[in-house]
Known about the structure:
Layout: H1 2-17, H2 26-51, H3 56-63, H4 67-82, H5 84-91, H6 97-109, H7 113-123, H8 126-141, H9 146-152, E1 155-160, E2 166-171, H10 174-207, H11 220-233, E3 248-249, H12 251-255, E4 267-269, E5 273-274, H13 277-284, H14 311-319, E6 340-343, E7 358-361, H15 363-375
Antiparallel strand pairs: 1-2, 3-4, 4-5, 6-7
Amino acid sequence: MPRYAELGIEMLEKANADLEPGLMTQKEVERTFELYSRAERLAAYGKTMLARRMDEAKVAQLGGTSIGKAKAVVATGNAMESSPELSQALQHGEISLDQAVEIASAEQSSPGAAKDLLKMAETSPFHVLRDEARRVKLEAEQHRDLGARQRAARFARSHTDPLGMVDIHLRFQPHIGTPIVAGAEAEAQRLSRAAKAAAKGAEREARKGGPRAAPQVEPFERYLADAYAKLLSGSGKGRTTRPEMVILVSHEVTKRGWNNVREGEVCKIPGVGPVAPEVAREIAQDAFLTGLFYDGKDLRHIKRWSRSKPAEVAIALELGDPPDFDGVKCADCGNRFRPEFDHVEPHAALGPSSYGNFDPRCRPCHLAKTERDRRAGKLKPPEP
C-alpha cells in the first residue's frame, strides 16, 4: 500500500516540474487546478484514516500544522468509522478535508446528519455548509447542558502585535455577545455614513472652487474598530434599526417551566444558535414579548404600502424562514454578513412592505439585484 502512495507522489513531483501556467490557456489552467484540487481531496482521505493510529501531537508534527487542526483531522477520522457515507465521499474525492471536518463534527453530535450535509456539500458554498453543520451540532447538544458549557467557555485575551497594536479577543455567551455586536454594527454604520456625507460635501465645495482636500472614506472594518472602541469607552451613539436581539422560544418550553427543550422545540437566537431556557426566561422578564403564529409553511402576512417595514414584519424577517427559523442570510449567496432586506417587487413599482415581499441580500447581491431590476424597467410605477 505505501508503494502506491510513493508512486503518486513521484507523479505529482513530475507534474510540478513540468507545470508552466504562463504557457497554458485559461481553460487548461482551470482544468489543471481542478485536478490538483481532486488530488488534494484524495490525499485528505489517507491522512484522516492514518490519523486514527496517531496522537494529535504527532499528526501536527508530521503534517506541519497546528494542534487545533490536528485534533480536527483525528476527530474526522474517528467519525468516519461510524459514517460510511462520509468515509466514501472523502475516499472518492467528492468533498474536501475542510468540508469533511465540518460534517464529521455534526455527525458526532447528531448521528445520521452526515447524509443530508453531504447532499448540501454538492451544491452549496463552504460557508453555507459550515453554518448548517454548526446549527445541527448546537441543536443536538442543546439537551446536554449547553448553557453551562457556554458559560464555562467565555474568556477575554489580549496581546500587542509587532506593530504595537492591541489585539483583543473576547468570547461571550450568545445572549451577551449578540446585542454587543448589533450595537457595534449600528455605530460603525453611523460613522461610515458620516464619513461618506463629509466626503460628498467636500467634493461639492471643491467644484465651487473651495479647498480640494476631501476626507478619506475608509473600509467599513476600520469604522467597526472605532465603534467597538467607543462602546467599550461608553461613548457610542449608534442605535440598531433591527431588534438588538430576538430569542425564539417554543410555547411548550414556557409551559413546562423553562427547564428543558424537547425534540421539535426551539429556544435559540435565530442565526446565532441555542440558548439555555433559564437564560431566555431571565431575559423575558425585561423584554417585549411577541406571539408568533405560523401554519408550518408561512407566517401570517402583514402588509404596509410605505417603504418602511412594520415592526411585526421586521421581527418575522429576523427569524428567517419557517419552520427552521435559522436567522437571516442572503437569498442569493447564503452569506450572513450584514444582509439588507430588499423589496422583491421594488417599492418604486408599488411593491408592498410585506413579509412575502422582502428577501435578505448582502450588499453586493442587493446592488446586483437592483441593477437587474433597473435594466428590466422595474424601477418605475406600473402603467395605469
